[in-house]
Automatic annotation (TrEMBL):
Its main location: membrane. This is NADPH oxidase 2. GO terms for cellular component: monoatomic ion channel complex; NADPH oxidase complex. PANTHER family: NADPH OXIDASE (PTHR11972), NADPH OXIDASE 1 (PTHR11972:SF71). GO terms for molecular function: metal ion binding; superoxide-generating NAD(P)H oxidase activity. Its cofactor is FAD. It comes from Pipistrellus kuhlii (Kuhl's pipistrelle). The keyword Transcription does not apply. Catalytic subunit of the phagocyte NADPH oxidase complex that mediates the transfer of electrons from cytosolic NADPH to O2 to produce the superoxide anion (O2(-)). In the activated complex, electrons are first transferred from NADPH to flavin adenine dinucleotide (FAD) and subsequently transferred via two heme molecules to molecular oxygen, producing superoxide through an outer-sphere reaction. It catalyses: NADPH + 2 O2 = 2 superoxide + NADP(+) + H(+). It is found in: Cell membrane. It comes from the Eukaryota.
């Protein structure tokens, strides 16, 4: 009885969490719809909510992982509980001591009154493996456990980063998992006493008199059992319907024609694609999913938009970081060949959309992680061009950490234009560049030292000098907290996990306990 209750409520808990996960992800990541010529997003719908509530939408992947961990934990508990049950089934079937368990196990599978057996092990010769592989619950349980193991192991960061295709394809066998979960309860291996039988043989009254069940003159009769109906399909039906319609919506959007208007090859094997698409509308910092059918019909990869909402096109920057991106760059490098077809789905919202809601913003990009901030910086340039007086942000600190000097050329023209625009408009203190070069040798450092007195930096051509090494974040946060003693500072990162931990710690450390003084709010891009 205890095992049955444990299995029942653990299963309910897992399925409830899965339902919540689907609804959450559907609302957060995929609930965008087209109305006229404009996309509307959940983040905009919740724009009236407090900042703390809106920020929870940016933790969708973290929530996804936590639910996955809980599913794995409860799956393990569920399997262990079944193993204990199987041991008890086998022991009861083999028993000849005339105990209650032995009597219940001996109930025939061929009773005239119906299928009233209780022990699924029908004979003393039946093994646990045979029973598992020949029953619907057992066979589907094995299948969905194998699928879950494959999905979890292929989701490890090492595999996801180095072998994205393995992660992508194995993650989509979740369809098999939920089909198996839906029919897992069919077969009635978990059984209960029928309502009619309970009236004649109530467990509390008749269990201790089981020796007299066959006595026709005794008031307790032999109990009758039936399989409990499958209920897991009820819990996965609603998320399944939502997922189906979401896939139809994304398929429709992805089939809309995308025209590539410009292709630019930047240093360090970075490809820039400028595109147009009917009805496409974006906000700063958003991202899209990109598919190239000539490379793979099924693979969709996320890329941050590097264009500004004010521009009449949208663009992405693609760095060679795996087989798919390398093949994409090679396809566009080929001369005298037609431009590959590109399909686009999105855009989708990120934390960077809120950048202009802060009085002070710290934009921190590592390598190609600068892309979401390129969109923000371009938008700033357009806002100053059109004298936008509704801009709430007063100061922006832009940090770009690169390993090689060639990376600065990706957006060098943009940074130079912004620097000039700030000078001409008398807003030199509005935008502060902090460029850091982490991969350098003595020749580069010596050359920079000899030319330090020049008006422009020898590496970037900007008036802001390039720093060698990594930022001293304690010093940076302390300085900003001193300069802006009563401001709300938004810290936005697109970079590695190690940097994320450091910045989170600094945000907590340098935020004042007094809510009227400097407060740092951490935001990170998640894909």
């Amino acid at each position: 009885m205890a095992n049955c209750l444990l299995n029942h409520w653990l299963s309910v808990l897992v399925l409830v969490m899965w339902l919540g996960l689907n609804v959450f992800l559907f609302v957060n990541a995929f609930l965008s719809y087209e109305k006229g010529d404009k996309y509307y997003y959940t983040r905009e719908i919740l724009g009236f909510c407090r900042r703390t509530l809106r920020k929870q939408l940016d933790h969708n992947l973290t929530f996804h992982k936590l639910v996955a961990y809980m599913i794995c934990l409860h799956t393990a508990i569920h399997i262990v509980a079944h193993l204990f049950n199987f041991e008890r089934y086998d022991r009861s079937r083999q028993s000849t001591d005339g105990s209650l368990a032995s009597v219940l196990s001996s109930l025939s599978h061929q009773e005239k009154e119906g299928d009233s057996w209780l022990n699924p092990m029908q004979t003393t010769n039946m093994t646990v493996i045979y029973m598992t592989l020949t029953s619907i619950p057992g066979f589907t349980g094995v299948i969905i456990t194998i699928v879950l193991v494959l999905m979890v192991t292929s989701s490890m960061e090492f595999i996801r980063r180095s072998y994205f295709e393995v992660f992508w394809y194995t993650h989509h066998i979740f369809i098999i998992y939920f089909i198996g979960l839906g029919i897992h309860g069919i077969g009635g291996i978990v059984r209960g006493q029928t309502e009619e039988s309970i009236k004649e043989n109530h467990p509390y009254r008749c269990a201790e008199f089981f020796e007299k069940w066959d006595d026709h003159d005794f008031h307790c009769k032999s109990p009758q059992f039936e399989g409990n109906s499958a209920e897991s399909w009820k819990w996965i039906l609603a998320p399944g319907v939502l997922y189906f319609f979401e896939r139809i919506l994304r398929l429709y959007r992805s089939q809309q024609q995308v025209m590539i208007t410009k292709v630019v090859m930047h240093p360090s094997k970075v490809l820039e694609l400028q595109m147009i698409k009917r009805g496409f509308s974006m906000e700063v910092g958003q991202y899209i999913f990109v598919n190239c059918p000539s490379i793979s019909y099924l693979e969709w990869h996320p890329f941050t938009l590097t264009s500004a909402p004010e521009e009449d096109f949208f663009s992405i920057h693609v760095r060679a970081a795996g087989d798919w991106t390398e093949n994409l760059i090679k396809a566009f490098e080929q001369q005298n060949s037609p431009i590959p077809k590109i399909e686009v789905d999105g855009p989708f919202g990120t934390a960077s959309e809120d950048v202009f809601q802060y009085e002070v913003a710290m934009l921190i990009g590592a390598g190609i992680g600068v892309t979401p901030f390129a969109s923000i910086l371009k938008s700033i340039w357009y806002k100053f061009q059109h004298a936008d007086h509704n801009l709430k942000t007063q100061t922006i600190y832009f940090y770009w950490i690169c390993r090689e000097t060639g990376a600065f050329a990706w957006f060098n023209d943009l940074l130079a234009s912004l620097e000039q625009e700030m000078e001409e408009s008398g807003k030199v203190g509005f935008l502060n560049f902090r460029l850091f070069l982490t991969g350098w040798d003595n020749n580069i450092a010596g050359h920079a030292a000899l030319n330090f007195d020049k008006a422009t930096d020898i590496l970037t051509g900007l008036k802001h000098k390039t720093f060698f090494g990594r930022p001293m974040w304690d010093k940076e946060f302390s300085t900003i907290a001193t300069i802006h003693p009563k401001s709300v500072v938004g810290v936005f990162l697109c970079g590695p996990q190690a940097l994320e931990k450091c910045l989170r710690k600094c945000c907590h450390q340098y935020s004042s306990l007094d809510p009227r003084k400097t407060q740092f709010y951490f935001n990170k891009e998640n894909f």
